[in-house]
Amino acid sequence: MSWGTGTALKPEREITFRSAREFLNDGAYSSVTNDCFGSPEDRQWSKTLDHPLYHEARKKASTEFGFPEDISYDDFNRQT
Fold it and tell me: pLDDT tens, 7-24?
């Protein structure tokens, strides 16, 4: 599981939660991309686990890797 610059690893055979879709990483980039400009839809915020629509998936992914279900972006990156 990667979120920003942090990554938590777990063997695939031990993972029970499977998302129905892939989410964007919101990681660090070495340049400014088109995703930085325009409306939230243009920035693809709707494809991130931070989007309220995917609150349940975020909770499940967080707990799958041993984090509190309400972990913040900053706390995740501090702990990984």
Answer: 898 888 998 888 766 666
